[in-house]
Amino acid sequence: VQLQASGGGLVQAGGSLRLSCAASGSIFVIATMGWYRQAPGKQRELVARIAAGGSIKYADSVKGRFTVSGDNAKNTVYLQMNSLKPEDTAVYYCNAERGPPSPYLYWGQGTLVTVSS
Questions:
Q1: Sheet with 2-6, side-by-side order of all strands
Q2: Which of 56, 82, 86, 94 has the most neighbouring CB atoms within 10 Å?
Q3: Is 24:112 a contact under the CB 8 Å cutoff?
Q4: At residue 116, does pLDDT exceed 90?
Q5: Res. 83: pLDDT tops 90
Q6: pLDDT in tens, 1-57
Q7: What is the rounded CA–CA span in Å between residue 72 and residue 89?
Q8: Which neighbouring-strand residues pair with 40?
């Protein structure tokens, strides 16, 4: 499975960005896709993920501001980020999880999101 992320950039506080992550390869093994982020000096954390069955999980810090969605026809997952805050500044990583019986995490390249105050 290969993941290609895009859509990062610089935005002012209160603005919006949309990240995209296109999956290719053996996508039939993917159980969930989503986004993590890592700010300088901090651990990588879950932002949002969506399961093949449609269930969605968000980090508390982004609930009500971010929306994760998927387009099965394009094998792409999106992260719509609204009302961005400076604390959202981080490198965002696309992630895909292979389901049982051989769970595995795939990672795309990071895309930098910078929110200026």
A1: 2-6, 17-24, 76-81, 66-71
A2: 94
A3: no
A4: yes
A5: yes
A6: 999 999 999 999 999 999 999 999 988 889 999 999 999 999 999 999 999 888 999
A7: 28
A8: none
Q: How many helices (H) and strands (E) does the chain have?
A: 0, 10
Q: Which helix (H) or strand (E) holds 106?
A: strand 104-116
* Cα gap 81→88, rounded to integer Å: 9
Distance CA 83, CA 110 (A): 21
Q: How far apart are CA 58 and CA 116, in angstroms?
A: 23
The percent of residues above 90 in pLDDT, for the chain, comes to 86
Q: Return the closest-CA partner of residue 113 out of 34, 64, 32, 40.
A: 40
The three-state secondary structure class of 53 is coil
Place of tokens 């995490």: 105
User: Measured between alpha carbons, how far is 54 from 75 in angstroms, rounded to an integer?
Assistant: 14
**Residue that is written with structure tokens 């969506």 in the block:** 50
